[in-house]
Amino acid sequence: MLNEIWYCHAKKGSKKIEPGHWFFSVGQWAHCAQALPMDDGRWLLMIAFDVFGKPLLKHEIYCASLEHCKKHVGDYFGCSIVEKSVREMPGPDSL
Asked: Domain segments of the chain: what residues?
């Protein structure tokens, strides 16, 4: 499905992609966001690019939880979030 955002959590030692919480736009075939846990319990959500007609005031957004990050990404891009394993995610060589 073209209007999906794939999400995965790559742990340390992953050989395909760097460790982190990654969001990948299937329609754009590009990394679209990353979520990072902060020391204070919040999450920093970094959006990689604007959706046409929906410019962001800030590309870095603080969220209360990882689930809130997923909801924000899905709402902003207008797509469902689909959890994938690291091996199902495209690596840098396929972008």
From this structure: 4-94
